[in-house]
Amino acid sequence: MADSPKLVVLKRLTTLLEATVVTPYNYGSLDSALPATLAGVVYRGRAVVSAEMPGTFLSILEAPKQLPSFGAGAGEARHDRWTLLINGACPEDRANPTDPTYGLLQDVELQLERIVKRSRGTGVEKYPTDYMLGRNAAGEHVLTSFEFQSGIVVRPTQDNPSSRAYFYIPVQVGIAKVVSD
């Protein structure tokens, strides 16, 4: 059985995010170094951070509250806007706990821009394999739209179950449900 359209989006987004180049952060010790990329530390649907999680990771989560679906266009049964949350964390700096998290947030936002990036002047897709998460077997883009909001860095408090700073990036993707012949 083929993957559902939503699972295709999640898998392709995971692959894109695993290629994120991480800007080094000087912690002053080698045991807190950030990885060069996010390869192998991007998860889907993992909401609980446990001790076995790596020091630096991302998790792609479905937002608990979704926007209503759009009306369908020509040849579509419906046009969904699907809201995802990209959650990320890395080791903290003892003096300035959120500083490395802001750096990782920026690296991830730059990687997400590849999904919509076009060359100036020509309007040609700058990263064709990443643009709208590539194309499906029918040659159509996997996504019909892609937007992300500015990420939010959260520092743990007594009311917060996390033991380290983390960030969320709200992402909305458009997926057309095509009418079958």
Which terms would index this structure?
single chain; alpha+beta; 2 helices; 6 strands; globular
Mean pLDDT: 86
**What is the straight-line distance between the termini?**
19 Å
Count of DSSP H/I helices: 2
Strand residue percentage? 15-25%
Q: Report the radius of gyration as a whole number of Å.
A: 18 Å
> What characterizes the major β-sheet?
6 strands, mixed
Number of strands: 6
Q: Based on helices, strands and strand pairing, what is the structural class?
A: alpha+beta
Care to give the gist of this entry?
By secondary structure, this protein is of the alpha+beta class. 15% of the residues lie in helices and 24% in strands.
Plain-language structure description:
- 15% of the residues lie in helices and 24% in strands.
- The chain has helices spanning 5-18, 99-112; strands at 42-44, 57-62, 76-89, 145-148, 152-154, 166-178.
- The longest helix is centred in the N-terminal third of the chain and has 14 residues, at 5-18.
- The radius of gyration is 18 Å and the shape is globular.
- Strands 1, 2, 3, 4, 5 and 6 form a six-stranded mixed β-sheet that branches.
- It is an alpha+beta fold and 181 residues long.
What does the secondary structure layout of this molecule look like, with pairings?
Elements (H helix, E strand, L loop, with lengths): L4 H14 L23 E3 L12 E6 L13 E14 L9 H14 L32 E4 L3 E3 L11 E13 L3
Parallel strand pairs: 1-2
Antiparallel strand pairs: 2-3, 3-6, 4-6, 5-6
